[in-house]
């Protein structure tokens, strides 16, 4: 299996622009997580889905952030409009969730720089 | 509510020395506990996990961790550090009351000196 795939790997944009990050989870995994990592705040859970349904979005910073999972093999995280404080590495992770809590498999991340 | 505390944001050891990274957790129900490692410019990857079987859990690369309920701890150890162990390590906790949500600690960066 190719693992969790994220694109793009790097994104540089200007303040006010729309940014869309993409994630393809591991086939057969039914939970998907979006995280943000910065030096100041560490690793933060933004939102997670189970069977394509958003379960907990309490970590989404504000209305400028939105996430979708239209099917089991694709998810997007959108920031509109972007701001310099959104600069971070964004990770997508997936897992099999059932009776047991399984490990999460992380993608390589998208490094976002907002100028 | 679940929480996890990692003691020490940075730990430095000499090559060949014992590695000890500390983690304490809080959970209202029996927890699932994990240690993940992150190498530079990569995502996190699982080192080991505790799911209420044996209290001493062995992971990859010679790491192990011991679940101590009385101390609410899950410290990570390795008898002999190698230069390739230099990375950031995250302790994480999850339980059924939190759904599938996993709470990660702040991370401990391990430095290995030659």
Keywords, please?
heterodimer; A: 115 residues; mainly beta; 7-stranded mixed sheet; 11 strands; 0% helix; globular; B: 114 residues; 6-stranded mixed sheet
**What does the average pLDDT of chain A come to?**
93
Outline of chain A: globular
Radius of gyration of chain A (Å): 13 Å
Strand content of chain A: over 45%
Q: Enumerate how many helices of chain A there are, as a single number.
A: 0
Which structural category fits the helices and strands of chain B?
Answer: mainly beta
How many beta-strand runs of chain A? 11
* Biggest sheet layout of chain B: 6 strands, mixed
Kindly report how far apart the N and C termini of chain B lie. Answer: 41 Å
Portion of residues in beta strands of chain B equals over 45%
How would you describe the oligomerization state of the chains in this entry?
heterodimer
In the predicted model, the low-confidence regions of chain B spanning at least 5 consecutive residues are none
What does the model show?
The complex is a heterodimer of chains A (115) and B (114). Chain A is mainly beta. Chain A contains no helices and 11 strands. In chain A, strands 2, 4, 5, 6, 9, 10 and 11 form a 7-stranded mixed beta sheet that branches. Chain A is globular, with a radius of gyration of 13 Å. Helices cover 0% and strands 54% of the residues of chain B. Chain B is built from no helices and 11 strands. Chain B is globular, with a radius of gyration of 14 Å. The relative contact order of chain B is 0.34. Chains A and B meet through strand 5, strand 9 and strand 10 of A and strand 5 and strand 10 of B.
Give a quick rundown of the structure.
The complex is a heterodimer of chains A (115) and B (114). Chain A is mostly beta strands.
List the SSEs and their pairings.
The complex is a heterodimer of chains A (115) and B (114).
Chain A: E1 5-7, E2 10-13, E3 19-24, E4 31-38, E5 42-50, E6 53-56, E7 65-71, E8 74-79, E9 88-95, E10 105-106, E11 110-114
Parallel strand pairs in A: 2-11
Antiparallel strand pairs in A: 1-3, 3-8, 4-5, 4-9, 5-6, 7-8, 9-10, 9-11
Chain B: E1 3-7, E2 10-14, E3 19-26, E4 32-38, E5 44-50, E6 56-58, E7 64-68, E8 73-78, E9 87-94, E10 103-104, E11 108-113
Parallel strand pairs in B: 2-11
Antiparallel strand pairs in B: 1-3, 3-8, 4-5, 4-9, 6-7, 7-8, 9-10, 9-11
